[in-house]
């Protein structure tokens, strides 16, 4: 029997296992059941592909998507591994061929959909064959607690009943704590070993901003991401088209992508993006599955996603090459309310709605958090930690807190005096003494709190009430037109028994720029030809601008460029001495020189 590490080197051409891979593979080869939680791109496939090659017999891989199956099989065939995919899109001839290969014991890996595996007599057929392992990919689909429940996965519980002796490895990139337990229960895993890889993506800077003037914010953001590939995720088809139009009008190569586009156009967008022919894709969540583009440098969420799993998976498409990437999430009350309405008005079961609402709640907490955002995500996935991450906006620029008890009392008093009849905007209008018709029609201009908060601007109020919701001081009743209601925590604050800290509202254009972590750079190994070319370029510029050369750029910066050979704007920004303005003025020229001489 070949050793796993030998297979990794010989067949896959890699020198070592990534963090948990080796341990997972050993456990699978030993014959345990296993649950593997590893982020996208972490290398889950090898966790069953290597055992499949090391063990005698056939490994059956259950996968939900035909495109993913085909890609995996194509990659394995490149390595001369006997693998096939069996799904509804293959013809009878190939199906017979596959069965023939299984009968002869030639086939090493069979990819199959859950329906395919469980329909007809296929399981029975497999009984007489030498099956060594079942791998269940995207295992979170088996759980209603997961973010992509698929009813056909539920029947996979039959696998363990039919094959109690054959090990099962369940793998997923997204499973919160409840989902992990549910996968084990649903698949009836037998004392499984659990492998939880760290979900932290230290190279992704995480920034959240309020959803005001989003297009303008995107334009500003793109100034420091010139020429870099990125995705703007939107909730609706209409916004993908609108954002793409706006960005094209600003000179960017951007295209929209959504499920209603004809298949060939979708394919075209995907290929153009993959080949760097377009810089930006403005997409609904339909875009991304199966995208394997290492140099995506940024991901923007134009709208708030419906749960942390989706959000984290989507930003995880950035920086797959390990180089710095940035994510920017816009959040708005409006997005939250529409997502909540989608859930409430959907056709799903009540249990499903409860789960989805709880997940949305956690997403909202993330978007409005004042503490380390990475920790919030890690805790969500069951990786508890409370040290700072230093790559999210809250760690890099901690929000300023102040004693906001006075404002909380004003708002609570208005909630109670309005007899809990006001939604957020109406409540703020009442606090600010607005003359709006709705205020007069509601009769709330007569209550005692009318106008007591007129000195506080509308957006500041919105920021404060949002924090009150997050702190449980007031709740939103979605069953009653999103009206604000008091909670058991309201009274003690009104009576002055507790102090409430709030963060100040900072308009987006006043926010300090999040510092970009500098790369550790060793200037010792500067490429001398490149350095000379950069200096010649600098002299030319200095002469034409009639300034000393160091004003254009100092020697240290040029040396850093010549040693790290930056390939993109964000890498240039990581060089000491190159900020946004110099990037805009000289970025393209420097990148050209690096390309030519580097
Ligand atoms: P996942 O299924 O977890 O999203 P994949 O299994 O597709 O991730 O692996 C992502 C990429 O990483 C693939 O290109 C794979 O070949 C590569 N990879 C996996 N393990 C290793 C390793 N030990 N060394 C180098 N590259 C690896």
Write the layout of secondary structure elements.
Blueprint: H1 4-12, H2 21-30, E1 34-37, H3 45-54, E2 58-62, H4 66-78, E3 83-86, H5 92-104, E4 109-112, H6 114-118, H7 122-127, E5 131-136, H8 151-154, H9 157-162, E6 168-172, H10 177-186, E7 193-196, E8 204-210, H11 214-223, E9 229-233, H12 237-249, E10 254-257, H13 263-274, E11 280-283, E12 296-301, H14 308-315, E13 325-331, H15 333-345, H16 350-368, H17 373-380, H18 393-396, E14 401-403, H19 405-417, H20 424-431, H21 437-442, H22 458-470, E15 474-477, E16 483-486, H23 490-494, E17 501-503, H24 528-545, H25 549-552, H26 555-564, H27 569-573, H28 580-597
Parallel strand pairs: 1-6, 1-7, 2-4, 2-5, 3-4, 5-6, 8-13, 9-11, 9-12, 10-11, 12-13
Antiparallel strand pairs: 14-17, 15-16
Helix pairs in contact: 2-3, 15-16, 19-20, 20-22, 24-26, 24-28
Bound molecules: adenosine-5'-diphosphate.
Adenosine-5'-diphosphate (ADP) binds next to helix 3.
Short description:
Helices cover 46% and strands 13% of the residues.
Describe this structure in words.
The strands form four sheets. A seven-stranded parallel β-sheet has the order 3-4-2-5-6-1-7, with helices on both faces. Strands 8-13-12-9-11-10 form a six-stranded parallel β-sheet, with helices on both faces. The longest helix has 19 residues, at 350-368. The chain contains 28 helices and 17 strands. The protein is globular. The chain is 46% helix and 13% strand. Mean pLDDT is 89; it is low at 514-523. It folds into four domains: 4-196, Rossmann fold (3-Layer(aba) Sandwich); 204-394, Rossmann fold (3-Layer(aba) Sandwich); 401-503, Winged helix-like DNA-binding domain superfamily/Winged helix DNA-binding domain (Arc Repressor Mutant, subunit A, Orthogonal Bundle); 528-597, DNA polymerase, domain 1, CATH 1.10.150.80. It is α/β, with parallel strands linked by helices and 598 residues long. Adenosine-5'-diphosphate binds next to helix 3.
């Amino acid at each position: 029997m070949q050793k796993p590490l030998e297979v990794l080197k010989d067949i896959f051409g890699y020198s070592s296992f990534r963090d948990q891979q080796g341990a997972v593979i050993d456990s699978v080869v030993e014959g345990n059941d296993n649950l593997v939680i590893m982020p996208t791109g972490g290398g889950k496939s090898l966790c069953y592909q290597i055992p499949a090659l090391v063990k005698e017999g056939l490994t059956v891989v259950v996968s939900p998507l035909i495109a993913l199956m085909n890609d995996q099989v194509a990659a394995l065939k490149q390595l001369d591994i006997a693998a096939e995919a069996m799904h509804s899109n293959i013809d009878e001839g190939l199906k017979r061929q596959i069965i023939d290969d299984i009968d002869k014991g030639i086939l090493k890996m069979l990819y199959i959909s859950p329906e395919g595996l469980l329909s007809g007599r296929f399981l029975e057929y497999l009984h007489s064959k030498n099956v060594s392992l079942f791998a269940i990919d995207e295992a979170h689909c088996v759980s209603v607690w997961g973010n992509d429940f698929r009813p056909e996965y539920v029947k996979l519980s039959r696998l363990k009943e039919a094959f109690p002796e054959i090990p099962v490895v369940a793998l997923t990139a997204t499973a919160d704590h409840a989902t992990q337990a549910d996968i084990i229960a649903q698949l009836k895993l037998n004392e499984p070993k659990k492998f939880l890889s760290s979900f932290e993506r230290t190279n992704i800077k995480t920034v959240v901003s309020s959803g005001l003037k989003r297009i303008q914010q995107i334009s500003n953001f793109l100034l420091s991401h010139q020429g870099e590939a990125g995705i703007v995720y939107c909730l609706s088809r209409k916004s993908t088209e609108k954002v793409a139009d706006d960005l094209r009008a600003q000179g960017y190569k951007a295209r929209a992508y959504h499920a209603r586009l004809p298949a060939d156009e979708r394919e075209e967008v995907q290929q153009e993006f993959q080949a760097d022919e377009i810089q930006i894709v403005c997409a609904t969540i339909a875009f991304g599955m199966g995208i394997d583009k290492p140099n995506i440098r940024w991901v923007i969420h134009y709208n708030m996603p419906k749960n942390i799993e989706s959000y984290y998976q989507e930003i995880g498409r950035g920086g797959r090459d390990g180089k710095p990437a940035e994510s920017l999430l816009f959040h708005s009350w409006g997005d939250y309310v529409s997502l909540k309405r989608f859930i409430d008005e959907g056709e799903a079961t009540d249990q499903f709605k409860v789960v989805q609402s709880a997940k949305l709640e956690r997403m909202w907490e993330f978007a409005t958090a004042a503490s380390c955002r990475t920790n919030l995500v890690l805790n969500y996935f069951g990786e508890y930690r409370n040290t700072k991450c230093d790559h999210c906006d809250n760690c890099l620029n901690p929000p300023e807190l102040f004693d906001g008890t006075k404002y909380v009392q004003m708002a609570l008093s208005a909630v109670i005096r309005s007899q809990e009849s006001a939604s957020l905007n109406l409540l703020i209008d009442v606090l600010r003494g607005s003359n709006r018709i709705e205020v007069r029609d509601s009769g709330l201009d007569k209550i005692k709190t009318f106008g007591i908060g007129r000195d506080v601007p509308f957006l500041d109020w919105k920021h404060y009430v949002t924090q009150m919701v997050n702190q449980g001081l007031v709740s939103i009743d979605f069953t009653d037109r999103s009206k604000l209601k008091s909670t058991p925590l309201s009274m003690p604050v009104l009576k002055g028994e507790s102090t409430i800290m709030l963060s100040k509202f900072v308009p987006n254009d006043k926010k300090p720029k999040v510092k970009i972590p500098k790369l550790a750079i060793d200037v010792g190994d500067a490429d001398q030809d490149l350095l000379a070319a950069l200096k010649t370029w600098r002299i030319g510029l200095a002469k034409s601008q009639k300034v000393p050369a160091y004003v254009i750029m100092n020697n240290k910066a040029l040396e850093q460029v010549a040693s790290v050979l930056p390939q993109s704007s964000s890498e240039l920004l990581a060089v000491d001495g190159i900020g946004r303005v110099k990037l805009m003025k000289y970025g393209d020229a420097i990148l050209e020189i690096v390309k030519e001489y580097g």
